[in-house]
Task: inverse folding
């Protein structure tokens, strides 16, 4: 089913990604509990440590997923085997071990000790949100990324060049290049923050959108059979809008960090347009599915794809717009509103695009066009459980955020942070409850793989309409 | 999409638009870096002065202890504990109050309450952190936060 044997390296990456996803959510649940039971696991696992594990495993598993997706997608687009499959395997293990050691370091050594052990004074990069990894880990990430780009680049260079693989490659190259700003950490706090966003914002609202759009396009081409020409035109327009709005849109982080006031205009205007590419992705996905020329037996993959388009628009587009205009952001900056948006945007866009690709490619890598209908029903349940509970997490945090903004920042008698937080306990408990349901959804997702593997041994359960032809 | 709008037009918008906006962004970055000296208190950071060294030390301690994993600083970070960009002002423009707060955190936390670790800082280190937080509060952040509570 898989056209090229080397596409199979993606299996490793997808398995690693899902394992880290499980760890990420377990630590999310710990964080959620610490929000209401302040000393839970203290001092063994302080909040900041659990948070690092939660966010760093998230980033690493998303990157692993992107790499796996690329290794699956590129040979098929380039119509040749991967340039060096063994390198892809080697890099996977290096990446996984580096990530494992880093997380173990967070949990077993006080952070200051980890900084000392890894010689952070030599090139200080640690201790900034999302970039907490020891400098040596960061260097490891750069090496893995360069080898990865080389491997993928050579494959494309020697094979058929398609718009999908080209845009994916541009996105991945941008990802690697922008990460280099993680190594710039001046004492000047304003400059530190200014360039920190070149990693964080220009990733999620820039180059990652290229990666997302090209993977989405690939899965839609494969599952709907719609003409490539049509898909490619859409793809160009979507990513054009992403970068045209998203680059200057960085300005929505330059309102209150010491940068000049004119950023309030640039940031507000351009970031207000950032929902456009996300909206176009939604229209694109539904359009392609409605104009489909075949009914792909992998219904679950199509559901994940449509879910990605919708929830990315909600999380990034709608919840992003909610707090992006500077007069609004003045009050919401750094509150639970930010957390609400961060969760739905990351989940809707980058978690779901990864699962979409895994859902599409996994059966093919195991010699079947689609999983049994039973396994797909498990997957679809997990889609609904995770998506609906994430929407509820977002709604509860938004509720908490509105109250927080009012009580702490907007009323005539602003109250202390800690006093306000206590008043929001009910919302945080509800968030934790929704988080538990999310976790159940994730377990159901993992179970679907085992159901699929078992059913694959019984041909009468196959969901495929015609005998294998992908 | 209409036939008159071709794929190559879409491609040109992508490349042209990207190049244009990257250049515009770089131009704005350049202008910002020229405007910053009047806003970012860089005079305090001069590494040849004792103050400059102390702030740099304070920032390193801030990073090496991952304070950002619980707190926001100028609104960025984690939302678990109070904003610290203006804590100097909130504590009555008093470095001693900040130092005392950090110094006397109970190692085992406070039952049921969100807890901050006991970092066992030396007096020098406490002074450096307080100086770093004072410096942060003096950055011209366009009038943010809305009030003293951060
Ligand atoms: C998939 C795309 C996106 C992802 C993954 C994402 C994620 C995030 C995250 C995690 C943060 C918090 C950063 C921090 O910890 O300081 C954030 C902040 C923010 N995002 Fe997004 N975002 C996306 C798209 C958007 C879009 C399209 C908009 C605008 C329409 C937007 C507007 C904002 C704003 C204004 C903030 C700053 C919040 C504050 O002041 O505290 N985001 N985003
Ligand atoms: C796939 C699902 C999830 C994604 C993509 C995700 C993503 C993130 C991100 C990007 C951050 C840091 C940025 C921010 O909020 O500003 C974060 C922080 C956090 N997450 Fe999650 N998360 C997920 C699931 C969960 C779950 C299930 C829970 C708990 C029930 C949870 C609880 C938290 C908490 C408490 C924080 C810290 C917020 C703070 O700084 O105060 N997350 N998560
Ligand atoms: Fe942003």
Result:
């Amino acid at each position: 089913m898989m056209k090229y044997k080397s596409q199979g390296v993606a299996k490793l990456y997808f398995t690693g990604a899902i394992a880290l996803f499980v760890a990420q959510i377990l630590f999310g649940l710990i964080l959620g509990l610490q929000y209401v039971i302040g000393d839970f696991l203290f001092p063994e696992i302080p909040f900041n440590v659990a948070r690092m594990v939660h966010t760093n495993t998230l980033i690493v598993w998303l990157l692993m997923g992107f790499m796996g997706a690329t290794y699956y997608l590129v040979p098929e687009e380039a119509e040749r085997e991967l340039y060096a499959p063994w390198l892809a395997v080697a890099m996977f293990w290096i990446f996984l071990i580096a990530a494992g050691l880093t997380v173990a370091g967070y949990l077993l050594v006080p952070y200051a000790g980890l900084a000392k052990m890894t010689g952070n004074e030599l090139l200080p990069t640690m201790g900034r949100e999302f970039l907490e990894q020891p400098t040596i880990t960061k260097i490891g990430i750069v090496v893995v990324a360069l080898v990865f780009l080389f491997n993928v680049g050579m494959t494309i260079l020697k094979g058929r060049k398609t718009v999908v693989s080209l845009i994916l490659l541009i996105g991945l190259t941008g990802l690697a290049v922008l990460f280099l700003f993680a190594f710039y950490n001046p004492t000047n706090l304003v400059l530190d923050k200014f360039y920190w966003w070149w990693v964080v914002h220009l990733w999620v609202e820039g180059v990652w959108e290229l990666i997302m759009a090209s993977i989405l396009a690939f899965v839609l081409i494969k599952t709907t059979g719609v003409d490539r020409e049509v898909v490619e035109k859409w793809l160009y327009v979507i990513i054009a809008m992403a970068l045209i709005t998203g680059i200057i849109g960085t300005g929505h982080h330059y309102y209150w960090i010491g940068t000049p006031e004119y950023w309030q205009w640039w940031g507000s205007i351009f970031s207000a347009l950032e929902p456009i590419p996300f909206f176009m992705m939604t229209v694109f996905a539904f359009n392609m599915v409605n104009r489909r020329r075949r009914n792909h037996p992998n219904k679950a993959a199509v559901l994940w794809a449509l879910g990605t388009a919708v929830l990315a628009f909600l999380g990034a587009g709608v919840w992003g717009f909610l707090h992006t205009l500077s007069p609004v952001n003045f009050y919401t900056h750094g509150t639970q509103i930010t957390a609400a948006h961060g969760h739905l945007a990351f989940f809707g866009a980058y978690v779901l695009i990864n699962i979409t690709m895994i859902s599409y490619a996994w059966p093919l890598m195991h010699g079947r066009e689609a999983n049994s209908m039973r396994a797909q029903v498990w997957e679809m349940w997990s889609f609904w459980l995770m998506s609906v509970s994430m929407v509820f997490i977002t709604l509860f945090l938004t509720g908490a955020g509105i109250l927080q903004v009012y009580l702490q920042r907007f009323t005539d008698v602003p109250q202390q942070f800690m006093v306000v937080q206590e008043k929001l306990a009910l919302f945080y408990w509800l968030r934790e409850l929704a988080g538990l349901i999310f976790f159940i959804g994730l377990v159901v997702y993992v179970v679907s793989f085992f159901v699929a593997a078992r059913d694959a041994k019984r041909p009468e359960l196959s969901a495929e309409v015609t005998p294998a032809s992908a | 999409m209409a036939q008159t709008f071709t794929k190559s037009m879409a491609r040109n918008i992508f490349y042209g638009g990207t190049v244009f906006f990257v250049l515009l962004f770089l131009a704005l970055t350049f202008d910002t870096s020229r405007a910053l000296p009047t806003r970012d208190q860089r005079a305090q950071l001069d590494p040849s002065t004792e103050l400059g060294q102390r702030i740099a030390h304070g920032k390193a301690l801030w990073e090496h202890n991952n304070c950002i994993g619980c707190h926001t600083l100028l609104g960025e970070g984690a939302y678990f504990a109070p904003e610290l960009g203006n804590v100097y002002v909130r504590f009555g423009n008093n470095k001693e109050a900040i130092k005392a707060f950090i110094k006397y955190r109970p190692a085992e936390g406070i039952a049921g309450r969100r807890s901050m670790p006991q970092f066992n800082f030396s007096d020098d280190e406490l002074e450096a952190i307080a100086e770093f937080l004072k410096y942060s509060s003096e950055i011209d952040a366009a009038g943010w936060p809305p009030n003293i509570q951060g």
